[in-house]
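Sequence design from tokenized structure. All designs in this work follow the same two-part layout: the structure record, then the generated sequence. An example of the structure record is given first.
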């Protein structure tokens, strides 16, 4: 399979897809620690996304996927440097905050079981697409994310960081490696993430 990074990646943000507020809260928490004042993020956002920067959002709130992506992009611009590093860090922080907090009971020391459960619970955290997990060896697996009506390379890059941090939290033995080997943003029929530990 060709490396995703070699293909031009597009995004599709229609405004109908949504994710749970816990994801955005974690990303904003990461940004707050680095930036302090969120004004540099707010000025880069369209007016309909600015209200999501407040602390009044609940973990269970439905946040427009489009606003999550635009906020992440604004955070990366305010932080500076390579945007993909920031997106991956946002994903890592989201895993640490959510899987170490509200969803702590969800984590175990069995990665295959945790990722299989993520697939079963997917619709509780976003209202679009499907998430499937396939074990591919004693310490390897593949995540397939398909049928995404909306997508963005920002989200896929943060997903890599999320899966890396989740494996670290499970104390996965060995070297943790997460690679996106196909991406809907690059014209592939689905996003595929290969995991090994």
């Amino acid at each position: 399979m060709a490396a995703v990074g070699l293909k031009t990646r597009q995004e599709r943000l229609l405004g109908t897809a949504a994710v749970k507020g816990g994801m955005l809260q974690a990303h904003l928490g990461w940004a707050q620690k680095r930036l302090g004042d969120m004004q540099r993020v707010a000025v880069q956002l369209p007016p309909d996304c600015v209200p999501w920067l407040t602390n009044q959002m609940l973990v269970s709130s439905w946040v427009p996927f489009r606003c999550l992506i635009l906020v992440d992009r604004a955070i990366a611009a305010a932080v500076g440097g390579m945007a993909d590093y920031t997106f991956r860090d946002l994903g890592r922080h989201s895993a640490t905050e959510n899987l170490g907090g509200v969803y702590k009971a969800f984590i175990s020391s069995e990665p295959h079981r945790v990722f299989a459960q993520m697939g079963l619970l997917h619709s509780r955290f976003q209202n679009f697409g499907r998430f499937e997990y396939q074990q591919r060896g004693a310490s390897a697996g593949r995540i397939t994310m398909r049928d995404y009506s909306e997508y963005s390379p920002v989200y896929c890059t943060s997903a890599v960081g999320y899966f890396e941090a989740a494996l670290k939290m499970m104390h996965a033995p060995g070297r943790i490696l997460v690679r996106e080997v196909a991406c809907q943003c690059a014209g592939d029929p689905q996003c595929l993430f290969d995991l090994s530990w």
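The longest strand covers residues 140-146. We note this feature because it recurs in several other targets discussed in the main text.
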